[in-house]
Amino acid sequence: MEPTEPSGDERERHWRRRLGRIRLGAEPLEEQLARYRRVAWGLTAVAGLIAALFIALFSAFHAPGVGLIVAGTLLLPVVVGAWLEDWSRHRRVAAYRREQRKGRTTEDTEGR
């Protein structure tokens, strides 16, 4: 028995699940990706300011190294997680676009 290709509806459901918060057909993917990139930058800026406050606070008590360790331990994982998610989201959208292009070229050649 030959393996069958999933239907277009099944592929769309697969991509809706895989893309998570990216909404297909709601607005252009570039705008959605740009919005999430701005959120990652905003999170980085806020975490950086909080880290600077921790370092300044501990520096006032002559322990800037402790402030750096506390800031890094508390805030660095949040920032790294935001950027890893952004990178992952861009990769998933690129894979979706590749599949869409591949599907279009296959449909174009089958129609001839």
What would you note in describing this structure?
The protein is built from 3 helices and no strands. The chain is mainly α. It is rod-shaped. The mean pLDDT is 88.
pLDDT averaged residue by residue: 88
Fraction in helix: over 70%
Shape call = rod-shaped
Question: Please, how many helices?
Answer: 3
- Alpha-carbon distance between the termini? 27 Å
H/E series? HHH
Strands, count: 0
Major sheet attributes: none
Decide which structural class fits the backbone.
mainly alpha
Uncertain regions spanning at least 5 consecutive residues: none
The radius of gyration computed from the alpha-carbon positions, rounded to a whole number of angstroms, is 22 Å
How much beta, percentage-wise? under 5%
Search tags:
single chain, 112 residues, mainly alpha, rod-shaped
Helix/strand layout:
Layout: H1 8-19, H2 29-60, H3 64-110
Helix pairs in contact: 2-3
